[in-house]
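Let us begin with a simple case.
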Amino acid sequence: MTQTSVLAPVGGRAVLLEDVPDPVFSQGMVGYGAAIDPPRGVIEALAPVSGKLLKLMPHAYIVLTPDGVGVLVHLGLDTVALNGEGFTAHVSQGDDVRAGQVIITYDVPSVEAKGLNPIVPVVVMDERVPENVILSDGVTSSADIASGASLFTANK
């Protein structure tokens, strides 16, 4: 069994995935993990793990670890409709990235100005067993956590 430590890509208040107001995330349809309610400003979204940037969209990205664990970071809900407005990428799809590296600058106020929720779900792609994702104490207590702090551990 491998253990993958997943870091918070942004700071803010930790939120249980089931409390995300979007059934795709709250019901674990994409995978299991946690979410972060970010500060209301322009912030940097970091790589939650080291690996290859498998997918890069303006509003979301997936990093695949060498052990084959894919971690999705989704910046806001329904933000695909913004067509990249409010997001600036600093890397390219296919790049090797390290945990903590800046991936996207996220303009939270511009997303909220469009009436969208800026919450940031972070999930292990295709994880179907919620018990394989061990949440950090910060998540289980809905604490404020720093960018780069432990979010959860994925067991595979």
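The second case is a distinct protein. As before, the sequence precedes its structure tokens.
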Amino acid sequence: MTTPALRRLRERFASAQIELLTHEKLADLWLHHPSIDGAITFKEGETVWSVASAIRRSQDNTQGGVPFDFGLVLPNSPRSALELWLSGIPRRIGYARPWRNWLLTQKVAARPGHVAMHKRSTSEIKHLIRGVPITHHAPAATACQRGESRITYHAASHQIHDYLHLASALGTNPEPVSPQLFVRDEEVDEVEKRRVQEACKKASQAAGNKPLIFLGLNPSAAYGPAKRWPTENFAAAVRDVSHRLGNCVWLAVGGIEDVRLCEEIAGLAGGNVLSLAGKTSLRELMALMKLCRVVLTNDSGPMHVAAALGTPVVVPFGSTALELTGPGLPNDRRHYLLKSDAPCSPCFRRTCPIDLRCMTGITVPSVVEAVLRAAGPTT
């Protein structure tokens, strides 16, 4: 969701050296990205001083570095501002927030359309499912209807606009552009050859004269179980789509912790699922997402990656708000974002204190139809 702001930053400073500070596990996302020239990375558990030292080293002219003129602080945390302050960057631009304003040289007020996420309490959720309206006193209330069971967001609620507005403090264009990541054709060809081709021989024979199409499957979500459509629903949707298409192979992805989940869905779906959970690098995951005709996924990192690579996604939304953090540009017609009529959604909780009705209310047939529409013609 930061990539539109980075693209606008590159437009404004076409010849500048732009470096991105990021966790080392995410650095490969940014390979071949035209908006940046490189990445400064840090590891899990590093101190603010070690991160600041890494930034300082990247500016060392004896090592070929160039001193930074300014730093754009995209996160809202005190730590992120402190790291840039300790690194000695002279201009530090970020949103005004308690405990960090003194670390910034340019404090940007929240944009007029900013919407804060309001995490619902258990008692609030129980009030809502009993039909008792709640009046919101959180900052989101200025952009949402008050006294109603569901929150209604305005057209510019999406977090993409927050990053664009922050970058505009440096004179960039605040108008939104699509999020973009980049993977090369040879990477897609290589992952198809190494990870997919051999395993798909049986499926190719079963498809007869029809060419195989690849569909992505991401049934996990790191934030917590409140963002996960039920396992048996994923399996049922995969089974139904496979039956109706007849020439598809599902590529199930995830981390090492998702191996059992993907294998369970593969078993329940009855074939045509190749589980690659825990077997791919980040670049291979990107190449697989690019290879797929459509990706069925929970609201998650891979969802955003697939959309930023131009692959349509089908997403059941429950505890989170698609209006705030949905994939791609808001209202992108390539993507199918589904939600139920549960009055307590979105709650922004990791776990559901009641019965996960926001997710169970999204039916298998509705997801199947969305996948088929997103996949388009298959012959």
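The longest helix spans residues 231-245. The CA atoms of residues 103 and 269 lie 53 Å apart.
Keep these points in mind for the review questions at the end of the chapter.
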